[in-house]
Amino acid sequence: MLGLGLHRACFCCGASRQEDREVEADRAVLEKEERSEPSLICPPPRSRSYRPPEDLQSCLESHVREVFGPSLPEDWQQTPLQENRLKHRLLVRLAAELGHAVPNSQLHRMRRAGDVLAFYRTPVKDETKIDELAAAELPPNLKIIWQK
What we know:
By secondary structure, this protein is an all-alpha fold.
């Protein structure tokens, strides 16, 4: 019995030594990765900016006419977007063509075609608050510098 107990203890120690070596190797890799990464880097460029095209109204009107067919009211901007399938089809087409999608948080506001037109008329700047601060005139004791 004592022999089995010692054998088990040796087996466990051998396994834990192997685990210790693996953990140490993992730590060494992580430490090397941490040293190679700078502490603060400039974020990668994003492409969230949007400028409405000149022919936005005619573009949107043609898409509304294609999706909703002949059942449009006289003023196409008053077309209700109650049927989710048609609303989705319209918004997907516009997002693909214009490169700018209505975010989920604003989908409930799109009740008529005019609401969609108002959304797509609004330009979007591609700047973060830190970018705006860096471009602004700051007090002499405050500077924002991106590390490269």
